[in-house]
């Protein structure tokens, strides 16, 4: 029984995390380890098996992390960069379920990883000791199975497996390419066609330009909330606003929203933390800093930011309205505590109600952030106040489509109530939700819409061929998100 369990553990560590049918495969790594054990002196087998088993256990942990990251973020785990994502995940759990739950999850994950490494190491040691005790049988097995594996591999038969070896190779290539990318990205940072250009954004003089990111608003949401988009288009048209919509391809899926924001504003693809760190440490011009340089007052509205946000200086924001500055006094609903309508109401009070200079604002709307714990109705704007009203407001069903619909309905209601002739609004998603929502094979596309009363603004973007209305057609243009900055600057600059 012990030997069978050890064999299953080792087989699973070698192939199962990358192949659900791995237990039925013949792993080349197992044959190699068995051959080495037979060639080593007896006294060296135990320490060698311990080292090999520990390494295999670490590879198994890496495979599990890969599977988790692919399920949530649609990409493999990056050993050099993803400590930030793991930390962000723990913080998200803390914000959604409380600090004790986050500590419990982190502790359980650490214990599970340690148990996996130790368990695999012990299993390899047991099998190595057994092989040495039965050298003749083990040697015959290697002699018979090795040519079987070679023939199967040459014929492309699925019985031949090299899962662990391929996993290690893939991550070695990933690390190598990541290190090489630093030089590539540095060159991209330095090559800015709009650096020092005159007349930037002159065609928007006097306008209040608002960029509103809707959390997890992806292409797959368009059909789910289609009736809301169509109703919003009609409501905005009744108030004199016209809309056009297309798609952008986000650099991320399922999370890491700050990378999408950085990509959109900088005009460079920022798809990992290394690029993000290089970007915010540079003097790259962003949309927000371009507006600031052109005379606009610039603000960031970040209801999910509860600590110091040094990136604000890079983006050139004159003011940041974070969680504390927004003054929300309503109930705590986890990470996405501040309802989007409250965020828009607080922004309106702080920046737009009084006479003001032309304003550029980036607003992060977070009510549609997983796990969609609280979806309130859209209230009368006069009732929003300091958010205390939400203590008595029963939520709607907590689900993805409802949360996206609430965010979009809040934006439409805000524009109808407070929008004027000087408003130019860009509404876009930051990324698609995780594969748990979209299923496999989803794109990384997100909708983007421009809303304005000014026909001259729409004339400037007529060549974009975007779909009239808030709902982009399935065949609407799709651009890389990093391409938007330059298109926008070209359209609205002298």
Brief sketch in words of this structure:
It contains 20 helices and eleven strands. It is of the alpha/beta class and 494 residues long. Helix 7 packs parallel to helix 11 and helix 9 runs parallel beside helix 17.
Question: What keywords describe this structure?
Answer:
54% helix, nine-stranded mixed sheet, 494 residues, 11 strands, alpha/beta
Structural class: alpha/beta
Q: Count the strands?
A: 11
Low-confidence stretches: none
The proportion of residues in beta strands is: 5-15%
Determine the N-to-C terminus distance.
78 Å
- Count, helices: 20
Shape: elongated
**Mean of all residue-level pLDDT scores:** 84
Sheet having the most strands: 9 strands, mixed
State the share of residues found in helices, binned by percent.
40-55%
Query: What Rg is obtained from the alpha carbons, in whole angstroms?
Result: 27 Å
Layout of helices and strands:
Blueprint lengths: L1 H14 L10 E2 H12 L2 H32 L9 H15 L1 H35 L1 H21 L4 E2 L1 H28 L17 E7 L4 H6 L1 H13 L3 E8 L7 H10 L6 H8 L6 H7 L3 E6 L8 H5 L3 E4 H4 L13 H13 L6 E7 L15 H4 L15 H19 L4 E7 L5 H4 L6 E8 L2 H6 L6 E2 L9 E3 L3 H9 L2
Parallel strand pairs: 1-2, 3-7, 3-8, 4-11, 5-6, 5-7
Antiparallel strand pairs: 4-9, 4-10, 8-9
Could you describe the 3D structure shown?
- The chain is of the alpha/beta class and 494 residues long.
- The chain has 20 helices and eleven strands.
- It has helices spanning 2-15, 28-39, 42-73, 83-97, 99-133, 135-155, 163-190, 219-224, 226-238, 257-266, 273-280, 287-293, 311-315, 323-326, 340-352, 381-384, 400-418, 435-438, 455-460, 484-492, and strands at residues 26-27, 160-161, 208-214, 242-249, 297-302, 319-322, 359-365, 423-429, 445-452, 467-468, 478-480.
- Strands 3, 4, 5, 6, 7, 8, 9, 10 and 11 form a nine-stranded mixed β-sheet that branches.
- Helix 1 crosses helix 5 (99-133), helix 2 crosses helix 5 and helix 5 (99-133) packs across helix 6 (135-155).
- The chain is elongated.
